Amino acid sequence: MPSTRAPLLARGSWRETQRITAVLRKETVGGALLLVAAAIALVWANSPWGETYETLRDTRVGPASLHLDLTLGTWAADGLLAIFFFVAGLELKREFVAGDLRDPRRAALPIAAAVGGMAVPALFFVLINLDGPEGALRGWAIPSATDIAFALAVLAVISTHLPSALRTFLLTLAVVDDLLAIVVIALFYTDELDVPALLLSLLPLAVFGFLVQKRIRSWWLLLPLAVVAWVLMHESGVHATVAGVLLAFTVPVVRSDAAGGPAAGPGLAEHFEHRIRPLSAGVAVPVFAFFSAGVAVGGLSGLGESVTDRIAIGIIVGLVAGKAIGITLATWLVSRFTRAELDENLGWPDVVGLALLGGIGFTVSLLITELAYGAESESYDHAKVGILAGTLAAALLATVVLRLRNRRYRRMHEEETRDVDADGIPDAWDTVDDRAEHDPDWQGTPPPGRTLGPSAEG
């Protein structure tokens, strides 16, 4: 009897592949903007006009009466990244409610890989900094994050034809990674908790959730509620970006009819994601990168001092070796205990290449750095240098591995885009299951002269 176990990193459904492709296209553009913003910040901070960069970053704006007289850098980290995490929350909920990951067998791999990709880098950082300077261990979570926008920008630069299964795995891994990161921030980087403010934040969250469940999308109702929830979350001591994830989790993914049952068409989550993702990828993350990446290294001697600091070494080792080992090991363990094998077109070098790409930690790593060490400490600057160096090293190693596999990827890409009958569905997805999902009116008859794919058997 043939095995009924789904192979690891198998091609997903056609509808999900279309959606993932559209998402990654937007994130790739955002990644390019992120790289440009980070480069400008680095050059400016190390130029003769570096003090003007610091002055701009530390300029305070906002009402002091509400404790919101924050620096522009803090507004970027606490405010703009809340938009980023709102989109990440929408994506995560969609994946697990209406995407391919609603199947527990498919969900197991990205969840395990994300956990492994966070635990092993954190372990390496702790081992390197066990007897390091006081307070160094507060940065244990810094090398645990994966920056999907930065990773996709790297893929665009190296022009690799990454197959759909690997692109889907990379995105879902990064989304689960983002959720785990926000949990870590809420649990481990909340120093003082104002319980009344935290409880009060649940009121606008509940009203927001009630309205979106009724499919009310009026911005003049929803936006003020989101802002009030953000302000109260900020006042409670919990990092304000948590509000973005909680708001996203209230948004319905599946559209309902008048009777409350499922109806055709996208849910409100898809509407919000379509509207807000360009703002997140094109504005929020690049602006945050601009205000966070600018670190004055003090020339080659200062750079050498920063890179050899224990905190920086822990971050570099965590991002490069920790991510590669953690993600690859977790994938192997899932394969070992489920007895599922990799898709026949892929091999373990592909997993290693993606794991190295997962070591591109930037946005969330910079956020955790500020929470761990504060913007005024020397450790903060060393950690940022470590993030930049580790990200660059991981990107270069991933480029080497993935480019070596690019001939195979190009062949797989040609197979996945071939559409002989020009019916709008590539032949690789021309199966009973995928055609029925793509066209609800389809009656099960193959096109003239065509035999549908493997899922038509039996």
What would you note in describing this structure?
The C terminus is likely disordered. The longest helix has 32 residues. This protein has a domain of 281 residues: Na+/H+ antiporter like domain (Na+/H+ antiporter like fold). 66% of the residues lie in helices and 3% in strands. By secondary structure, it is mostly helical. Helix 3 runs antiparallel to helix 10 and helix 11 packs across helix 15. The chain contains 17 helices and four strands. The strands form two sheets. A two-stranded antiparallel ribbon has the order 1-2. Strands 3-4 form a two-stranded antiparallel sheet.
Rounded mean pLDDT score: 83
Q: Please list the strands of the largest sheet in the order they lie side by side.
A: 1-2
Structural class: mainly alpha
Q: Fraction of residues in helices?
A: 55-70%
The general outline is: globular
CATH level-1 class of the domain at 75-189 and 239-404: Mainly Alpha
Number of helices: 17
Proportion of strand residues:
under 5%
Most strands sheet: 2 strands, antiparallel
- Spell the H/E element sequence: HHEEHHHHHHHEEHHHHHHHH
CATH overall fold name of the domain at 75-189 and 239-404 = Na+/H+ antiporter like fold
The low-confidence parts are 432-458
